[in-house]
Write a structure and sequence with these properties.
Structural class: alpha/beta
Largest sheet: 5 strands, mixed
Protein name: Endoplasmic reticulum resident protein 44
InterPro entries: ERP44, ERp44_PDI_b_1, ERp44_PDI_b_2, Thioredoxin-like_sf, Thioredoxin_domain
Strand content: 15-25%
GO molecular function: protein disulfide isomerase activity
Number of helices: 13
Distance between the termini: 30 Å
Organism: Ovis ammon polii
Radius of gyration: 24 Å
GO biological process, one term: protein folding
Length: about 375
């Protein structure tokens, strides 16, 4: 793959096919701006990106600490395709050559970009100085705790690399030497403490010097099957392009969430990758509820948002009927939900001899589509293709 980055100033590093791998793989952090010259939002970002790189270069003068670069996606469409660029400008973060899943979606200002890089450069691991601190971590979070004989070790370097990538999803803690000794009866180890106080801890049994094995295990613990949707991550989740199966529940109603999580894991694990499993705070997402003629008083409510329409699951308690939730998702994939909203029950669902009526109706339009990347911030490629 040919990589060429066009420099804006001396602070925006120009990369070519000869140095791209070396520079990105050796950079602690690289922020890459994927742009098109004709895109007005790209044009507006250029001087901001340039000034932010100058500010950061003063704070992190070492060439390998932070790299600012950009890609002209018209000239290098192969690079744009490789990284699935669907809008301009797109700012993606790389760590030691590995692209992070979360792109930068914050404010486009010098201060915001500089603050973002500073936050990425901060140590994501909290050091424990007393094992008593382990009893008081925030149990609303997913906690990953590493116990190491010494900081200067390959085991810890792998742990630190994983923490740098997944620190947005988990809280990382570490103890060393004498402090960690009571937990190192079989050598260095990593423990996952799930949210809540009832779930048991889990211990990583693989090789701690194997980055892929360690990363995959920790990612599996840090990124839950059922994720919470907020206004902060709504754009990111929407851009994944998968329909939403979403539980609306009151924040304090953890019982319904647990039931939903268990049934998704039991009935729908094979559907991971075809639909996003989410939960949302009824109070914060009153508007989508109103869209399906519900209020927070009706919660918990399960619905599907296909990005065209919203469909409501029956009574929440029916989620416990084996296969019921799975059928709801299958009916989305088969088009049955859409057909029935427009034409009433499918003929196969009516009793013998019962007259089939063509019931015209208008399913509620998608609410969450409105959280997708905005045409007021990006040039969306699908819109350009339709011109």
């Amino acid at each position: 793959v040919t990589w060429v980055f066009t420099p804006v100033t001396a602070e925006i590093i120009s990369l070519d096919t000869e140095n791209i791998d070396d520079i990105l793989n050796n950079a602690d952090v690289a922020l890459v701006n994927f742009y098109a010259d004709w895109c007005r939002f790209s044009q507006m970002l250029h001087p901001i990106f340039e000034e932010a790189s100058n500010v950061i270069k003063e704070e992190y003068p070492n060439a390998n600490q932070v790299v600012f670069a950009r890609v002209d996606c018209d000239q290098h469409s192969d690079i744009a395709q490789r990284y699935r660029i669907s809008k301009y400008p797109t700012l993606k973060l790389f760590r030691n050559g590995m692209m992070m899943k979360r792109e930068y979606r914050g404010q486009r200002s010098v201060k915001a970009l500089a603050d973002y890089i500073r936050q990425q450069k901060s140590d994501p691991i909290q050091e424990l100085h007393d094992l008593a601190e382990i009893t008081t971590p925030d149990r609303s979070k997913r906690n990953i705790i590493g116990y190491f004989e010494q900081k200067d070790s390959e085991n810890y370097r792998v742990f630190e690399r994983v923490a740098n990538i997944l620190h947005d999803d988990c809280a990382f803690l570490a103890a060393f030497g004498v402090v960690s000794k009571p937990e190192r009866y079989s050598g260095d180890n990593i423990v996952y403490k799930p949210p809540g106080h009832s779930a048991p801890d889990m211990v990583y049994l693989g090789s701690m010097t194997n980055f892929d094995g360690t990363y995959n295990w920790i990612q599996d613990k840090c990124v839950p099957l059922v994720r919470e949707i907020t206004f902060e991550n709504g754009e990111e989740l929407t851009e994944e392009g998968l329909p939403f199966l979403i539980l609306f529940h009151m924040k304090e109603d953890t019982e319904s969430l647990e039931i939903f999580q268990n049934e998704v894991a039991r009935q729908l694990i094979s559907e991971k990758g075809t639909i996003n499993f989410l939960h949302a705070d009824c109070d914060k997402f009153r508007h989508p509820l109103l869209h399906i003629q519900k209020t927070p008083a009706d919660c918990p409510v399960i619905a599907i948002d296909s990005f065209r329409h919203m469909y409501v699951f029956g009574d929440f308690r029916d989620v416990l009927i084996p296969g019921k939730l799975k059928q709801f998702v299958f009916d989305l994939h088969s088009g049955k939900l859409h057909r029935e909203f427009h034409h009433g029950p499918d003929p196969t669902d009516t009793a013998p001899g019962e007259e089939v009526q063509d019931v015209a109706s208008s399913p509620p339009e998608s609410s969450f589509q409105k959280l997708a990347p905005s045409e007021y911030r990006y040039t969306l490629l699908r819109d350009r293709d339709e011109l």
